[in-house]
Amino acid sequence: MKKYEDYEFLDFEPQGNGVLLMTINRPEVLNATNVKLHGELTYVWDTIAADDDTNVVVVTGAGRAFSAGGDVELIEGMIGDSDEVSRVQREAADLVFNMLAFEKPIISAINGVAVGAGLAVALMADISVMNEDARITDGHVKLGVGAGDHAAIIWPLLCGMSKAKYYLMTADFINGTEAERLGMVTFAKPADEVMPTAMEIANKLAKGSQPAIRGTKQTLNGWLTQAGPIFENSLKMEMLCFLGEDAKEGAAAMREKRDPKFPSARKYWEAQ
Predict the structure, then answer these.
(1) Residue of 133, 137, 138 lying closest to 188 (CA atoms)
(2) What is the percent of the chain with per-residue pLDDT over 90, rounded to a whole number?
(3) Partner of 147 for a Cys bridge, out of 9, 140, 152, 221, CB 3.0 to 4.6 A?
(4) CATH assignment of 4-256, given 3.90.226.10, 3.40.50.1820, 3.60.21.10, 1.10.357.10?
(5) Among positive and negative, which fits the CA dihedral 120, 122, 128, 132?
(6) Within the chain, what is the greatest distance between any pair of CA atoms?
(7) Is there a contact between 36 and 78 (Cβ–Cβ < 8 Å)?
(8) How far does CA 195 lie from the centroid of its chain?
(9) Rounded mean pLDDT, 186-211
(10) Distance (Å, rounded) from C-alpha 172 to C-alpha 122?
C-alpha cells in the first residue's frame, strides 16, 4: 500500500477536521497527466481509503489549471503500440471503477481547465465546484480517438443524451456557467469562491454521519455501475482508435498546435 509521501505529482494536506486536500501538482504543464501521474490518479483512492483520519477528499489543481489532459508524450507513446494501449486501457478502467468503489465523499474544486483523465476525476467526483470562467472538454475526438475515459458512464446522466452526444462528438469547450446550467457540475462560482465553497461543503460532510453519507453515495453510484459495460466498451473503442492513422494526425496536430486534418475526413479536405 502506497503512502502519501510516495506520490510524486499529488500533494496531500490534511485539514485536521477529517478533510483532506489533494492537489494535482504539475503546474508547469497545466497539470497534464504523464504516465506516472495517470497511474497515481488510478491507485490513490486505495491510499486515502486506508487513512482513518480522512472522511472527505477535496481535489484540485496547482496553479491556474485543474488538469489539461494527457501530455503529448503519453499520447504518442500509445499510438500503434498494442501493449501500451492495453496497459492504459486497464489503468483508465481502474481509475473510474476505483473512484466508484471509494466510499468517502469526493469534492472536486475545478479551478481551471479540465480535460482527459483530469476531467474524469473532476466529473466522477460526488460534488463539483467549478470556476465559472474555467473550461472543460472531453477532447478525445480532436485526437482522432473515441470518447473513452469516463464520458460514456456519466455524461448522459449529468446532461442528458442529446447534449452528451453533441459535446462528445464535437469536443466543444464548456465554461463553468454553462456546465452548471447543463448539470455537468454542482455549482459554478467566481474564481476566488471555488475553494472556499468546496471546503464549506467538505466541512458539512465531515461532521455528518459517515455511515449514512457513505451509504447514500454508494446507493446512488448504482446508477453508474449499471453503465459499467457501456463504459468498458467505450474504452475498447477508444483504444482501437489509437492503432489507426487518425490518432497519428491528432497527436501531430496537438504537438504543432494546429487543427488536425484526419485521413478519414479526406473527402472534406479534397473538397476545400
Answers:
(1) 133
(2) 92
(3) 140
(4) 3.90.226.10
(5) negative
(6) 63
(7) no
(8) 18
(9) 98
(10) 17
What is residue 71's predicted lDDT score, i.e. its pLDDT? 81
**Stretch 238-263: mean pLDDT:** 94
Give 37: exposed, middle or buried? Use CB within 10 Å, 0-12, 13-18, 19+. Answer: buried
C-alpha cell at 151: 464520458
Rounded Cα distance, 192 and 195, in Å: 7
203-232 pLDDT, tens per residue? 999 999 999 999 999 999 999 999 999 999
β pairing state of 113-115 and 187-189: unpaired
Checking if the pLDDT of 18 tops 90, the result is yes
Overall average pLDDT of the 187-201 stretch: 98
Bridge partners for 59 per DSSP = 22, 108
Residue 1: per-residue pLDDT: 81
Per-position b or e across 124-158, b if 16+ CB within 10 A of its CB: bbbbbbbbbebbbbbbbbbbbbbbbbbbbbbbbee
From CA 178, how far away is CA 191, in angstroms rounded? 15
CB 104 within 8 A of CB 48: yes
Kindly report the average pLDDT of the chain as a whole number: 96
Give the Å distances, CA to CA, from 50 to 8, 28, 45: 19, 31, 9
71 neighbors 63 (Cβ within 8 angstroms): no
Residue matched to cell numbers 466541512:
203
- The DSSP element (H or E) to which 165 belongs, if any, is helix 161-170
Dist CA 211 CA 209 (whole Å): 6
pLDDT of residue 132: 98
SS3 content of the chain, % helix, strand, coil (to 5): 55, 15, 30
Please give the model's pTM, rounded to 2 decimal places.
Answer: 0.96
